[in-house]
Amino acid sequence: MTSNPYSDVVPCLSSGSPPPSRADLKAQYVHHVALKPPLEDDVPKGKDLKQRCVKFSVAAAISLLLLLLLTGILLAYYYSSSCVHGVQCVDGGCVWESQWCDGVTHCPSGEDEAHCVRVQGSTSLLQIYSNKLKEWRTVCSYDWSDQHGEASCQGMGYSRGTYFKSGQQKTASDNGFLIVKSGFNPDVSILQQVAFSKTCPNNNGVTLRCTDCGRGVNSSRAPGGPAASSPASWPWQVSLQLAGSHRCGGAIISPYWIVTAAHCVARAPDPRDWAVYAGIVDSLGTLFNPAHTVSHIITHEDYNSLTRSNDLALMRVSSPLDFTDAVSLQLKEAQVSLIDAAVCNGADAYGGQISQGMFCAREGDTGDSVCHADSGGPLVSLRGGLWWLLGNSVWGQRCTGENKPGVYGNVSHALSWIYFQMKQQTWTQHDA
Q1: What is the pLDDT of residue 26?
Q2: What is the pLDDT of residues 72-93, one digit of tens each?
Q3: pTM over cut 0.85
Q4: Mean pLDDT, residues 411-422
Q5: Distance (Å, rounded) from C-alpha 167 to C-alpha 192?
Q6: What is residue 5's predicted lDDT score, i.e. its pLDDT?
Q7: pLDDT surpasses 80 at 107
Q8: % of the chain with per-residue pLDDT over 90
Q9: What are the residue numbers of the active site?
Q10: Residues 422, 314: contact at Cβ < 8 Å?
Q11: CA angle, corner 421, sides to 289 and 338, nearest 5?
Q12: 261 — phi, psi (to 5°)?
């Protein structure tokens, strides 16, 4: 008897049913356990959707973490860089760019208002920086007064009482002007008392003089060599003394400020070691003139002792200097002529040592120049009825017997630095 191969896997029929004929039999399929995973198409749709959701969630979580990490880095950079959103102060603080030159001091040292007023050219044309326009503009002379002039001088760092005069100059400006507002407020910066105007009613710009220096008596200079000065000829000349001896000369540029050479003070930077005498050149003069103590010495930060570039320093005295001090008859004066830089830099002179911030001068036919005791002393020029400080003595070779011209630091080249230092110290004194 042939056994039914499907008897173990096919369900039994009910006992009341006749056996099926061969024609009624159909192929049957046996389910076997698969040895390999099914193809992707065979995975149920629900399971496929679940896997995709898991993958998407993982990718979204990674992306979110990366985004948070990037945001953290940007925020850390933003807060660690205090001036991403403004302009940095000297102390590391920061102010908004719109607060720069707005007439209100925001930086502790005041540098945000230190370079906002200036004079340009030989006529000293007044210009003010507009924080709204982000440009310099000439100031129109319409409705200008001496009070505005005094405020402008203070805006450049001068102390009260150093305003000399204002003038006018025909000026064309396609970019417009700054014109004074109606009324004047002595307690408000000049920056807040001007407004932009496309035109200037009289087409004149303001010229400004901010010093009471320069009004010396005519010199008694005679040709033929250095001569003694007449009393009070050069009231701005001072003697800078160290340990009771004359070390260098200097020039008064305001009641509190003196310009001299950096090499004079580089080895003795302590203000307490110095004394300032007006009107003397030797130790005998100290018996009849008061000594002025020094509160600050500021040496140009870019001074180079080898090349003598930026050989400039400022002294601030503790009490204001008197411009009417008599000048000793031993003070010598000499008329000099400027020398072209190319000539002064020639092989028979200084061989390329004269930089942009220097110039050379020689005295008349004698060829005399400066020597050591003249260091820091002024070279002045008479222009428009006032004596103007052009340079301070840097070095010369006359005293060594070499016939070389004197070398002077170009004071005009360093005006911005001088104004900034004066203004910064003025604010410091007020804060104290």
Answers
A1: 44
A2: 776 665 555 557 667 888 777 8
A3: no
A4: 87
A5: 21
A6: 43
A7: yes
A8: 26
A9: 263, 311, 375
A10: yes
A11: 75
A12: -95, 145
Amino acid at residue number 353 = Q
Q: Which residues contact 426 (CB under 8 A, 6 or more apart)?
A: 157, 159
Query: Would you state the torsion angle of the CA atoms of residues 386, 387, 389, 390, taken in this order, to the nearest 10 degrees?
Result: 100
What would the two tokens of residue 352 be? Answer: 């390329």
